[in-house]
Amino acid sequence: MNKESNTYTFLFSVVMVLVVAVVLTLVSTGLHPLQNANVENEKRQNILSSVKINVTRDESKSAFDTYITRQLVVNSRGEEIAGDAFAIDLAREMKKAPADRSLPVFIARVDGATKYIFPARGAGLWGPLWGYISLNDDKNTIFGAVFDHKSETPGLGAEITREEFSSRFDGKKIFDGDRLVAIRVEKGGKATCLHEVDAISGGTITSKGVEAMLRDNLTCYESFLRQPAP
Amino acid sequence: MTNRQLLLGPLSKNNAILVQILGICSALAVTAKMEPALVMGISVTAVTALSSVILSFMRDIIPTRVRIIVQLVIVSMLVIIIDQLLKAFAYDVSKQLSVFVGLIITNCIIMGRIEAFALANKPWPSLLDGIGNGLGYAIVLLVVAFFRELLGSGTLFGIPVIPGILYQWGYANNGLMILPPAALILVGIVIWIHRARNKDLIEQQ
Question: Which ipTM score applies to this complex?
């Protein structure tokens, strides 16, 4: 067959594409369980570090079972509903109408005290932001926070992942009297009150993204937060 | 060229980055730390070597008119496989490299070697040529990353190597080294030293 004919070129392309597609499908299907385990363990690691328990990714599964005593799913009225809290994709829930959202809550027991852990999801300058925030059993005082991002600028917005930034949230309060105010992220070292933290220099839009993320996500949990702790 | 020249030539006198000035973009992007630089070097070496061999085997059956597309498909396939392997077995590194793994496809060294060498030579020399060029790229990446991480972060492979007492005396890590311009300057310095040592590379006036 003439190698340069149209028929040959066409057949060659079809066969090549089919072969490559089969190879890639096999690789992807074969490795999927391993990749998933990595992603899940990283999620456990992040949840644990919001209550200041730092473990490696490999240890995170057993540590998660030790410290996280309860996982529940609530709706926007604060009522517990059926569901697997760990498997919920918060990005998808946040796109739904507030009344239809299933919101995960993790309850941890650290040094004899109960901590409530809430996931958060928002947008930074270049892409999504996410994090976990833990509250003491008064459901008001922040115990710890951890943030991560997909594509913020290294050295500027990406600094939100550093403990130096996340530790600024420790001990802050999300309720001002009876009003849920979450935490404002303010520029220029002006953060003085209990509801404000300092922003990152050069990372203003990312910092404001963190602020909006906390406000939006904590607002979803408002009814749950107002219930007295059992 | 002998097989030995094919393998060792690209390490120095025929180096892709230093002499042919190919693959500069990723050399700037992934050299802030040693570990990603090493993984990137290994990944590119694997992709150049494997794609050269595969395409060399196929060289007599590829229709000339679609050869560039065939090259792209094979290289993309290998890159996706590497990306998947990293996500499964080296998750932290794959997070650090993020988009750069996908961008291996656009690394000019790979397509350059296939087009210039593999499509006209037998599989064994093509494999050596691919490995040689990949390693030549990896070495430059590691040299640049060594200085950037040492001077910029005071660590090597994430392990602190600058004694703490130096910091007490007022030594500070150079933040410029973390940023891409430092890589450009360092690559320039490496090229300068390399040319000063290999006078035959200097063009006649």
Answer: 0.74
Q: Residue B123: what are its φ and ψ, rounded to 5°?
A: -55, -45
Task: Give the rounded distance of the alpha carbon of A78 from its chain centre.
Answer: 20
Are A12 and B84 an interchain contact pair (Cβ–Cβ within 8 Å)?
Answer: no
Q: How far is A20 from chain B, CA to nearest CA, in Å?
A: 7
In which region does residue B152 sit, left (phi positive, over 0), alpha (psi from -120 to 50) or beta (all else)? alpha
Shortest Cα distance, chain A CAs vs residue B150, angstroms: 18
SS3 state of residue A188 = coil
**Is residue B145 a part of any domain in this protein?**
yes
> Across the interface, do B87 and A24 touch by the CB < 8 Å criterion?
no
Q: Give pLDDT tens digits for B96-138.
A: 776 778 778 888 888 888 888 888 889 999 999 999 999 999 9
Cβ proximity of B86 and B100 under 8 Å: no
Chain B interface test: which of A8, A27, A150, A152 (most B C-beta within 10 Å) = A27
SS3 B107: coil
Domain ranges of chain A: 61-224
Torsion of CA B122, B126, B129, B133, to 10 degrees: 160
Name beta bridge partners: B123. Answer: none
On whether any CB of chain B is under 8 Å from the CB of A127, the answer is no
Token pair recorded at residue A36 = 């998933």
Q: Is residue B201 part of a domain?
A: no
In this structure, what are the phi and psi dihedrals at residue A143, rounded to the nearest 5 degrees? Answer: -90, -40
Phi, psi of A3 (to 5 degrees): -65, -25
Question: Mind listing the pLDDT tens digit for each residue in A128-145?
Answer: 999 999 999 888 899 999
Report the residue from A3, A4, A27 with minimal CB separation from B84.
A27
C-alpha to C-alpha distance for A97 and A85, rounded to whole angstroms: 19
CA distance B178 to A155: 9
**pTM for this structure?**
0.75
CB contacts of A36 in chain B (<8 Å) are: none
Domain count for chain B: 1
Whole-number Å distance between alpha carbons of B194 and B129: 21
Residue B32's domain comprises 3-196
